[in-house]
Amino acid sequence: MTATTAARPPRPPHTTRPPRTRRLLFGNRPTRNPLLRAIASHSVMIMALVLMLYPLLWMVGASFRPDNQVFTTLGLWTGDVTTENYTNGWGGGDQLNFSRFFLNSLTLTVLSIVGNLISCSLTAYAFARLEFRFKRTLFALVIGTLLLPYHVTLVPQYILFNQLGWVNTFLPLVVPKIMATDAFFIFLMVQFIRALPTSLDDAARIDGCGHWGIFRRVVVPLSIPALGTTALFTFINTWNDFLGPMLYLTEPDTWTVSQGLASFLDATGQSEYGSLFAMSTLSLVPVVGFFIAAQRLLIEGIATTGLK
Amino acid sequence: MKENDTGGPHVPRGRGRAVADTEGGAEGRPRADTKGSPKSSAKGSTKGSAEHNAAAYAFLTPWLIGMLVFTIGPMLFSLYLAFTRYDLADPPEWIGLENFRRMFTTDPRFLTSVDVTLTYVLWSVPLLLVVSLALAMVLNRGLRFLSGYRALFYMPSLIGGSVAVAALWRQIFGEEGIVNKALAFVGIDHGSWVGDPASALYTIVVLQVWTFGSAMVIFLAGLRQIPRELYDAAAVDGASAWRRLRSVTLPMLSPLVFFNLLLGVVNAFQAFTGAYVVSNGTGGPADSTLFYTLYLYEQGFAQLNMGYAAAMAWVLVLGLAVFTGLLFLSSRYWVHYGDER
Fold first, then answer.
1. Would you say residue B97 lies in a domain?
2. Are residues B194 and B304 in the same domain?
3. Quick one: pLDDT band at residue A139, thresholds 50, 70, 90?
4. Residues B298 and B196 in one domain
5. Number of CB pairs < 8 Å for A and B?
6. Please, what are the domains in chain A?
7. Interchain proximity A288–B155, CB inside 8 Å
8. Helix or strand or coil: residue B85?
9. What residue spans carry the region label Disordered (chain A) (predicted)?
């Protein structure tokens, strides 16, 4: 990291440093010339980025091409631009009604977010601020479920929801959220609430607040960053979820965008890939949009909790 | 992950709970209010422990119900199902260890799915760690536009699990995909990568590695915590770049390497969407992408062998527990937690 030092003007020159004769490979030249080094680093980054994001850009490009040109080029742009793929994909197909799918995904997502926010914050408040019997054991359960593969509950949950007659409703996908089954978010919020100063709790208590009042008037308003992170990750997870909807939503009327895309993929011949790419692009827009809007918040959340 | 269980240590909580959590809670008796901080004389402070418990459990009610109804109950039920034959129509029939016997002796597809999943984990997790660490280190060299780069690299992690991206993957590694178009420039002609049993799994490995951004962000945060003095000292000693990486960066970063490794392994074992979409739900070609989860889904929900699927789920839990247990054991030898040692 000596090069960074050299690149920062305010630091005094390190005259005492011995000549680094033993440095290898990339060591010497860039150190002597910070500008070259910066250019080299940026080139590496930009090349990596292009390599990574090219498939996405290509898909967006392909979604605006006429059907017969979708696969003809490696480039992003052929000159012939059409929005036909979007109109065909959105309303066109006989069974595949993407406006319906987007509405379903949106409903499911909103309900999941509300469920997670309320239930996880209530749970987290108790673990972070209250003392009660069996607290350690119960918190160990939360941590235990963090690492538990979802497969164990997949089959019996299906049997349960099937018995209840909840298949082909959103209930199997939403009710668990209302019951705080996402241990990750509980953990995230417990960590956050623990770090809040307790003096405000005390002040509220003196003003006559009970636990509910402290929760509602003090802890929730102060936990907006953690709640925001939870909301965004719930949004992304629910929006992308495929296995859950595939199990419980079998009627095309109840399908989510993920299912729509998957069955589009099954049904398409080579001729309709334009529409598939158009709908895929549309399905990614909300996620990418939210991310751009809140990327700082999100990345802070990841860096401190390791959430994926 | 390395948090202690209950409450930050030694934080006064007011209202008679001004005790260090590390000693309270285990046996559960909330401290009597007489032990409290001066503020415990405030209004409403003389609640008994029963009321404390009642308040806490009121907050915990949704979670408790969820835990019992959606996690613990189903787990126990699935443990029972694992020893039965059950197809949703007739009542479960107890068959003892038959499901497990069948798995390991007469079901070659099960062993294939284990093989596929392990291959996937052993390729994708190390690759992902190396790529994310390497890019984090380049980003940490004081580049400008850091947050921009960081956000763009992170983006694939958000959408990598979606059907849209999996569908795209199937196209770019397909016969006419852009990968082949690019390879044509250098004269390589491979045919469809997803259609070839030898390469199909590796297209999904690439998909997983593509989502290295979340691990990178964690590494980046860790790299910034490493004290500069360590590097200065290493430089004074004439350490080479390689030596500094090995003797300073990696040991200092080892808790995060461990964390990302653990997370990567747990995620990779549970991969589903990519394999399902790329293989069109079949695990093909020739079962080369028959992930464990995919096979479990097929057994449980396509063929309605729910007992068998439950047994598979428990084998996965045990396998994962052994795997992560070994990771934790090994961590004693290579993970350094600052001052502890």
1. no
2. yes
3. very high
4. yes
5. 345
6. 2-82 (no CATH), 98-305 (1.10.3720.10)
7. yes
8. strand
9. 1-22
**B133, B42: one domain:** no
Query: Domain check: are B312 and B240 in the same one?
Result: yes
CA dihedral B315, B316, B321, B324 (to 10 degrees): 140
B237 and B315 in one domain?
A: yes
Phi, psi of B255 (to 5 degrees): -60, -35
User: First CA to last CA across chain A, in angstroms?
Assistant: 29
B313 and B172 assigned to the same domain:
yes
- How many residues in chain B? 341
Helices of type H across chain A: 2-7, 28-32, 34-63, 84-87, 98-129, 135-147, 151-163, 171-178, 183-194, 199-206, 211-214, 220-222, 224-240, 243-248, 257-267, 273-305
Q: In chain A, what residues touch B257 (CB-CB under 8 Å)?
A: none
Contacts of B149 in chain A (CB under 8 A): 45, 49
Q: Domain total for chain B?
A: 2
- The answer to whether the Cβ–Cβ distance between A287 and B161 falls below 8 Å is no
What 3-state DSSP class applies to B77?
Answer: helix
Alpha-carbon gap: A99 to the closest alpha carbon of chain B (Å): 16
ipTM associated with this complex: 0.81
Question: One digit per residue, pLDDT tens: chain B, 341 residues?
Answer: 333 333 333 333 333 333 333 333 333 344 444 333 444 333 344 445 777 788 889 999 999 999 999 999 999 999 999 999 999 888 899 999 999 999 999 999 999 999 999 999 999 999 999 999 999 998 888 778 888 888 899 999 999 889 999 989 988 898 888 888 888 888 888 888 888 888 899 999 999 999 999 899 889 988 988 888 888 899 898 888 888 888 889 999 999 999 999 989 988 988 899 889 888 888 878 899 999 999 999 999 999 999 999 999 999 999 999 998 999 999 888 888 765 43
Burial pattern B247-261, b for ≥16 Cβ within 10 A else e, equals ebbeebbbbbbbbbb
Residue of chain B with shortest Cα separation from A278: B164
Residue A301 CB neighbour total at 10 angstroms: 22
Instruction: Identify which of B219, B254, B208 has the alpha carbon closest to the alpha carbon of residue B138.
Output: B219
- Do the domain assignments include residue B28? yes
Cross-chain residue pair B14–A201, CB shorter than 8 Å = yes
Is the separation of the CB atoms in A258 and A245 below 8 Å?
yes
Secondary element (H or E) of residue B94: strand B93-94
Q: Do B310 and A127 touch (CB under 8 A)?
A: no
Interchain pair A288, B242: CB under 8 A: no
CA distance A116 to chain B (A): 11
CATH of the domain at B160: 1.10.3720.10
Rounded distance between C-alpha atoms, residue B129 and residue B212, angstroms: 8
CB atoms within 10 A of CB A111: 18
Q: Which of A23, A129, A147 lies closest to B266 in CB terms?
A: A147
Residue B207 located in a structural domain: yes
Residue B258, domain extent: 104-340
A205 and B14 within 8 Å at the Cβ level: the answer is yes
Find the residue in A nearest to B267 (Cα): A149
> B162 and B270: one domain?
yes
For A198, the closest of B13, B151, B221 (CB atoms) is B13
Mark yes or no for CB contact B172/A58 under 8 Å.
yes
> Which candidate, A173, A177, A202, A170, places its Cα nearest to that of A121?
A177
- H or E stretch covering B93: strand B93-94
- Which of B168, B272, B276 lies nearest to residue A55, judging by beta carbons? B168
**Which residue of chain B has the CA closest to A256?**
B163
